[in-house]
Amino acid sequence: MRIDGFFMDDKTQKERLEQELRFLKESFEAEVISKEEFEKGRERIERKLKEIKQAEKGQIPEKQEPVKEQKKDEAVEITETGKIKLRVFQDEHHETHNHPGAETEQKTEQKEAPKEPAPEKPALAGEQKKESKLFRYSAVFVVLILAVFFSYSILKDTKDVQEKTAKSNLVAVCSSNEDCRQEGKEGTCLEPGTKNAKCKFKETPKTSVIVLNDKKNCFNCDSQRVLSIIEEWFGDINAREIDYSTPEGKGIAEKFDAKALPMYILDENITQKPRFEQFKRLFAKKYNNYALSEDVAAANLYIKRENVLNKLDLFVIPKDNASIRAEENLREFLENFKDAKFDRHLSTDKLAVELGIKNFPTFLVNNRVKFSGVHSAETIKEKFCKLNSLPECEKSLSRSLV
Predict the structure, then answer these.
(1) Torsion angle of alpha carbons 175, 178, 181, 186, nearest 10°?
(2) Residue 75: which of 146, 144, 159, 166 has the closest Cα?
(3) Is residue 91 part of a domain?
(4) Are 254 and 187 within one domain?
(5) CA–CA dist 55, 394 (Å, integer)
(6) Residue 160 sits in the same domain as residue 183
(7) What pTM was computed for the model?
(8) Helix, coil or strand: residue 376
(9) Of 157, 141, 74, 130, which is closest to residue 105 (Cα–Cα)?
(10) DSSP H/E element including 6
């Protein structure tokens, strides 16, 4: 990022761009965005990251024209002894003009040429000495004038080159509003992409976010990751977590027809945020608020489903490598937990569609809490035993993947 024409190492911007790239990938994998939108967003983020890396290395971005190498002043010559010698050149546009000192030298020569002495009046020695002194003084004066003239020319050319170099090093402070970021403020880029570009900031109110959650009955319902993403989108937030088991929580769940937790409800203020249009389709407007979709919210607790103790379901894709590995690692768990009620489902089964499961393999514990991925037998046991109490929970299973 640039401030007043100079590079600024913005580690915070780099981290946020990397975090946005990770979320963009997850949104694409969850089929929340199209491939075209994913590629377009990724290209923009990677371009920003590349500019930051170049700034860290002290490089000029590729889109800027490189500073032309300053030409060596041909009017100066450094001799082998280290002395500076001035060269005199005629101006190309005034080739017919005489050398500045030529006329003076010519007049001097004419002046010092002694007249033919008359035989009867020979020249005096004193007069010859006087004329010789006058010639030397005139020559010294001409040399001094030339030295001052060329010294001024050299200094002027050096100053012009320095000014041109400084101008060529200038890069636009911002090219879009996204380049103008400041803690607790909303930035706008004025005259983007030009040498007069500048960021204008104004105070912005924090975005209010209600997090409806039930951590007591959900081991997989942490909200910090999603809250950090919302803050990346809309700036500072004021988050308030409400327990689903309380009367207030029950009322909110009923009002917003919550099916899974955690649920994130944002106030109408987000419509005024610069990036709202970019993420608008990830929200459902309800009353004067906006609820984040279940897929993006990583909602893992199905609150309207019956709690069935010691129940474990696995959702897989036939002949899928990850699904096959998940089943192989699950085998040790099932051999030890004989009382566990296990069912296997395909990605096309009615239950998978009903729950909106899009990532495979996915596990469902006690008919309510889900978690995805390939896990070791020990990890599956730990998650299962967070909601169930069986004697087998005291056993230690394999921690390595098959």
Answers:
(1) 110
(2) 146
(3) no
(4) no
(5) 55
(6) no
(7) 0.53
(8) coil
(9) 141
(10) strand 6-7
